[in-house]
Amino acid sequence: MGVHEIEDAALLFVFGYHGAESHPIVARRIVRAKQKGAKIICVDPRRIETARIADMHLQLKGGSNLLLVNALANVILEEGLCDYDFIEKHANGFDEFKEVIKKYTPESVTAQTRVEAADIRKAARMYALSGRSMILYGMGVCQFGQAVDVVKGLANLAIMTGNFGRPSVGIGPVRGQNNVQGACDMGALPNVYPGYQSVTVPEVRAKFEKAWGVKLSDQPGFTLTMVPHQVLHETDPKKQVHAYYIMGEDPAQSDPDLAEVREALEKCDFVVLQDIYMNKTGQYADVILPATGWCEHDAVYSCCDRGFQKARKLVEPSGDVKTDWEIISLVSTAMGYPMSYKNTVEIWNEVIELCPGFAGATDEKIEKNVCVQWPCRSKEDHDKGTSFLHKDGKFAHPDGRAKFFATDWRPPLELENELYPLTLSTVREVGHYSVRTMTGNCRTLRNLEDEPGWIQMNPADCEVLGLAEGELVKVLSKRGYCITRCLPTGRVAKGAVYMTYQWWIGACNELTIGNFDPISKTPEYKYCACKVEKIEDQAWAEKHVREEYELIRGRMGIDMKEGRAA
Amino acid sequence: MTIKQIQSTCAYCGAGCQIMFTVDIEKNKILEAVPARGRTNDGALCLKGHYGWDYLNDPQILTKRLVKPMIRKGGKGSPLEEVEWPEAIAHVAGRLSEIKAKYGPDAIMGTGSARGSGNEANYVMQKFIRSAVGTNNVDHCARI
């Protein structure tokens, strides 16, 4: 559904999504929904902003998502709160689903979720009976070793209660980055061409072979998160990665288990970094190709609710830089596959000709309407795009019906233990974005927060270690360590700690684990075991942080002699 | 002085906020960013929308803006040396072609980007990897 529909829901079920930190402007819609009378149920292990205005906050233990989701389904089934008419007309697999779900009674999950059975019952009733319930979910669902199953579990709730195919219902993954939707739309994925057309379907492949004039591979490729493994540990020579061409990413800061990422970048025969700023990954690149940034080129972005919108060239870049598409076209041509695009409109026209779901989203239409949400199939003016999917209960499966899918819960891979008694989850903060090469280079935003960041801890855990607010601490996991500042806060439960991932010295990805969901290959950023150690000599620690920061800035090309203080 | 108002889309989170920029065309500088009435943002911006364009001024705070192609001519661990574009392109194309010839196309991995590059750049990248290199090894930072 569209972001604009959020405020008209009768009930918002916000699961593992911290809008106020990750999408402040989407979060305003949640506040507005509340003002318009919506009920809000917040499911999150932290007492986030949404929890503060929610009617119910289910403060579950991290890593227990599917237990809770299945228990909610159990209540809806047991109490007969289903929309049986919707299920009969629009869904398959209900009987098998019931079989799996029947054992997930609220009482059976209380110990592991830490949510009272009565609260699970109450939340299930509220969700099932509001008439217009919308689910919003975020990385608190996706960044686990069991993630896709939970998304399907949330979809089950919406299907069984008929909350699909109308305004202000459905389930909404509120996608993180400005163009994560767009990169997917354009087929920057190992299993699909642009427009989500599978590389394994012969007719689809034939269409793209004809359009691109070349024979194409029928084997899905590797995901980005598999690269360290394919470089370091793959024994089949046919599956080893020897060259890595990275555009606009910084895996040496953003990916889990950084020690392993560094090892892979060092070992990989040839690494190309195409970016706007020097970053951690650039330290390992064999070649750097400087590109234009946001505001220096024209582009279409896809926002989180499938909306195509234009980003404009506002200024001329100052360096000897080129747009990303020009650079790739030059490399491609030099490798014997000529590309000679004149501008982004020419590329866009090629995209929409190959993708039926985008065919109507012409350049003129995006110019005229500012935003066009796909699917938009007809070039005619009357097709202004699609605000919500599955209208009138028509789903994407070949028979047009939704499919129930239920499975059993699996715990996270690395549980807290005697040596590492705390659980670490990585989160976001409002002032900085991703690896902060952009926001960290904006004066106003840099002033909001700087190295080495914070670790959010329950005051009781701080007390045990004798830690005060602002004190530098060492955080360790089996994979590495980093230094950050202690932030005691009652927003987090005992035993769980939280860090943001953009800091160099407080780099929490030194600690995170390369455990991936088997389908999405998303890392389990939201759960690994760690411990916090007190640093007795705070003066040394402060000096160490300062010196490290200067050292890294120097490596990033900042001229330290000019006396610019960090 | 040529001052222009140009509407654009924010490049930080997925909300897709519309921003009205005031640009001094002659001085090639952005002067101000204020909210525009987009479908999703409805006339509001967060701090990043208001102030997130200052990186264009290369204020030398955190990292240096990349302004010239560079190659480690002495191999891994050697310093990056500035080169002209034709040399950089020929070097990348040459090395990728060598690796493709030696190990096959599936030994090469490329990434799109979920950030500022945009849809057209992502389309061209995946087309390059699929058509010029000959593999489906293309992905982006969706999972992080």
Question: How does this model look, in words?
Answer:
- The complex is a heterodimer of chains A (566) and B (144).
- Chain A is 32% helix and 16% strand.
- Among the domains of chain A are: 3-174, Dimethylsulfoxide Reductase, domain 2 (3-Layer(aba) Sandwich), CATH 3.40.228; 422-553, Barwin-like endoglucanases (Beta Barrel), CATH 2.40.40.
- In chain A, the strands form six sheets. A six-stranded mixed beta barrel of chain A has the order 16-20-17-19-18-21. In chain A, strands 3-2-1-5-6 form a five-stranded parallel β-sheet, with helices on both faces. A three-stranded parallel β-sheet of chain A has the order 9-10-11, with no helix packed on it.
- The two termini of chain A are 43 Å apart.
- Chain A has 566 residues and is of the alpha/beta class.
- The longest helix of chain A has 18 residues, at 538-555.
- In chain A, helix 4 runs parallel beside helix 10 (148-160).
- Chain B has a three-stranded antiparallel β-sheet with strand order 1-2-3.
- Chain B is of the alpha+beta class and 144 residues long.
- In chain B, 56% of the residues are buried.
- In chain B, 27% of the residues lie in helices and 22% in strands.
- Chain B has helices at residues 47-51, 85-103, 119-133, and strands spanning 3-9, 18-24, 29-35, 70-71, 81-82, 108-111, 138-139.
- Chain B folds into three domains: 3-57, ADC-like domains (N-terminal domain of TfIIb, Single Sheet); 68-103, no CATH class; 106-144, no CATH class.
